[in-house]
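$ ./design --mode recover --in tokens.txt
reading tokens...
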């Protein structure tokens, strides 16, 4: 089972009766739009980000030249510093613990032969995605009540972020834009 679908199942279990988008809707590939799933448990904040590569680097295929390779490296370097893009409530005292990035453009060339057929098909059509998991440890999880997302400044091709939030007490959803960057719960 892929990490993305495992995450969807886990989020659905946490959210109980809140109607979630179907797996097909969550996996829809729309330029300018990405999804962010936010899960808050007893001491961690977990963020799962997914969207078309075009939103972040302006293309959706294996890099073909030095400029494109540099764009991929810059994106990966930036996303590995997730604390600059995802700002939890300051009073919660959250610290970035881990970052996992997954995309066809990040795999070593030797591993490309191991891709499943759907990934290869997506790459051929030029519709590759980026998935990221960002885990924060929070010393005062009870004071965590919002998240500011600063991806829009660094990535102007990203126009809308569909957010789903699941905490131990509440579930909600929101749409963020360059003008509305904060989701509260």
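writing sequence...
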């Amino acid at each position: 089972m892929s990490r993305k679908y495992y995450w969807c199942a886990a989020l659905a279990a946490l959210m109980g009766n809140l109607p979630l988008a179907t797996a097909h809707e969550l996996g829809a590939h729309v330029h300018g739009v990405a999804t962010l799933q936010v899960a808050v448990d007893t001491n961690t904040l977990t963020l799962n980000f997914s969207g078309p590569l075009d939103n972040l680097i302006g293309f959706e295929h294996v890099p073909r030249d030095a400029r494109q390779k540099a764009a991929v490296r810059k994106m990966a370097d930036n996303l590995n510093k997730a604390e600059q893009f995802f700002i939890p409530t300051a009073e919660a005292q959250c610290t970035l613990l881990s970052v996992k990035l997954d995309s066809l453009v990040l795999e070593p060339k030797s591993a490309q032969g191991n891709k499943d057929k759907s990934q290869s098909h997506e790459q051929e059509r030029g519709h590759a995605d980026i998935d990221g998991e960002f885990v924060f440890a929070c010393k005062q999880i009870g004071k965590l009540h919002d998240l500011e997302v600063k991806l829009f400044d660094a990535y102007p091709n990203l126009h809308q972020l569909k957010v789903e939030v699941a905490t131990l007490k509440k579930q909600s959803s929101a749409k963020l834009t360059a003008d509305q960057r904060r989701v509260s719960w």
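exit 0
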